[in-house]
Specification:
This protein has two domains: 103 residues, no CATH class; 146 residues, no CATH class. It is 67% helix and 0% strand. The chain is globular, with a radius of gyration of 20 Å. Helix 1 runs parallel beside helix 4 and helix 5 packs antiparallel against helix 6. By secondary structure, the protein is an all-alpha fold. The chain binds zinc ion (ZN).
């Protein structure tokens, strides 16, 4: 009996991982097409080099990349390592979220937001932009879902609620909007993109204001460390622009995974520490 139960748990983990890979494959499509203003539904995937359509067997996450040796079968142009990386990253995030939150309904919502963060990260790294076509609709779903299914990350099973969602939205969006306005006024240059502001408003609507503060703290810390490291190692200029979206995504994931523990330790609330 115990062996059967362990076997079943194993099957579920494999299933979650495979779902993560398959969704990751779709995220690659979003990363390529959204910043270029293309539809994510049609046409079928093509090689960016020779535009030949990609057959179903060449579209299996990670495996196809390995089988094809990272090259297009038709024209031989190399396929970016980003494709299997995004698939694996998304699969491990799903695995981690399932491990952390268990067989509940709301981890699926965190999986959704984690996937959104993966897409934002790779688009921002390549294009230094965070498309409104992602942040605005996702922000709206956060507001709607908060009233009944999105949990309060620091509560005990109750939903985040419309009020919690809106306070989160205005905390995230407001702090970043203030930085944006102030840096334009004082430094006479854009310190923060409007995309970052909308991304933070979107996140706030999902995870609430406490998680937003953790996101900003962790994101800024990680951003400063990497920024200084780039200046020292690569001799990058102080003025060179480093996209902030990936660091905020890292901060938000830290808040989703460990926010409750962090706040529990801070407030000395033992029941928040399990
Ligand atoms: Zn090709």
């Amino acid at each position: 009996m115990a062996i059967a139960a362990e076997y079943a748990i194993c099957v579920i983990y494999v299933f979650v991982f495979v779902v993560g890979l398959v969704v990751g494959s779709f995220l690659n499509v979003c990363i390529y097409r959204l910043p270029r203003g293309l539809s994510i539904v049609s046409p079928r995937s093509r090689c960016p080099g020779c535009l030949s359509p990609i057959k179903a067997w060449q579209n299996i996450p990670v495996l196809s990349y390995l089988l094809l040796g990272g090259k297009c079968r038709n024209c031989g142009s190399s396929i970016s390592i980003r494709y299997p990386m995004v698939e694996l990253l998304n699969a491990f995030l799903y695995l981690g979220l399932y491990y952390k939150f268990g067989p509940e309904w709301y981890p699926a919502l965190y999986m959704f937001i984690a996937s959104v963060l993966v897409v934002i990260t790779f688009i921002d790294l390549e294009f230094q932009l965070i498309p409104n076509v992602i942040t605005l609709p996702v922000m709206l779903t956060g507001i709607v879902l908060s009233t009944f299914v999105l949990p309060d990350p620091y509560g005990f099973g109750e939903p985040l609620g419309l009020k919690g969602s809106l306070i989160g939205l205005f905390t995230g969006g407001g702090i970043f909007y203030a930085i944006q306005v102030l840096s334009l006024l004082i430094l006479k240059k854009e310190g923060m993109g409007g995309g970052d502001t909308k991304m933070m408003a979107m996140l706030g609507a999902y995870i609430g204001w406490k998680s937003i503060l953790i996101t900003i703290f962790v994101g800024s810390l990680a951003g400063s460390i990497v920024g200084v490291a780039l200046i020292v190692i690569k001799g990058r200029g102080r003025d060179s622009r480093i996209p902030f979206g990936p660091f905020l995504a890292f901060g938000a994931l830290t808040a989703i995974f460990f926010g409750r523990k962090i706040v529990g330790l801070y407030l000395g609330t033992p029941e928040m520490l399990q």
